[in-house]
Amino acid sequence: MNNLTAIVLAGGQSSRMGQDKALITVQSVPLLQFVCNIAASCADTVYIVTPWPERYEHLVLTGCKFLPEAATQGPLIGFAQGLAEVKTEWVLLLACDLPKLRVEVLQEWAANLDSVPEEAIATLPHHAKGWEPLCGFYRRRCLPPLLEFINQGGRSFQQWLQHHSVQVLSLPTPEILFNCNTPEDLAVIQGEFDDLSPNPSPTRRGA
Ligand SMILES: Nc1nc2c(ncn2[C@@H]2O[C@H](COP(=O)(O)OP(=O)(O)OP(=O)(O)O)[C@@H](O)[C@H]2O)c(=O)[nH]1
Ligand SMILES: [Mg+2]
């Protein structure tokens, strides 16, 4: 299809949510399944990096392959583990808690990877708090500097990216990065989808 692999990270503690975010359903679809299906529409190979693949075996994850981790050591280490398997020049990295991700936006970004300057190791959205490292593209050749950073004790994407050239990905709407971390975030997203439904719940509409 193209020269792209995707890595979906699904090994977080979900401590703010209080239950595994990967299995939370939005419009009846578990979040991990939603994100992986979008990833599979953009990339030939999709790896799911997680310490607990058995939790997700019942999901419909066509064309996706689990890469089991020994333990949760944070997203940067999970990414490095996935990246070690990648054979393509570019990899799309995604969190599993992005309920507003849009396939057409990722496909458009993927179609423009050829125009990213050679010196950039990644192309990512940027917002007020810095880079959005878990919804963007990295060059496979960033693995050696990433491993060096990790071996020196580094665990933060923001700190690692500070040392490198990164190209900004333009966002058609910041909404697609909506991160579902807490029960309040979940209530917001479920409320929005309820409002779009042809038969909105009478309790939400109120009198
Ligand atoms: N494979 C893997 N993924 C991780 C790890 N830590 C976080 N992630 C993933 O990284 C993404 C972003 O995680 P966060 O939203 O920051 O948080 P979280 O750890 O899942 O949840 P909190 O405990 O509430 O911070 C999610 O897709 C997580 O599943 C890890 O150790 N391994
Ligand atoms: Mg998150």
TrEMBL record:
It is found in: Cytoplasm. GTP binds at L9, A10, G11, K21, D97. It catalyses: Mo-molybdopterin + GTP + H(+) = Mo-molybdopterin guanine dinucleotide + diphosphate. Its main location: cytoplasm. Its cofactor is Mg(2+). Belongs to the MobA family. The N-terminal domain determines nucleotide recognition and specific binding, while the C-terminal domain determines the specific binding to the target protein. This is Probable molybdenum cofactor guanylyltransferase. It comes from Nostoc parmelioides FACHB-3921. The gene is mobA.
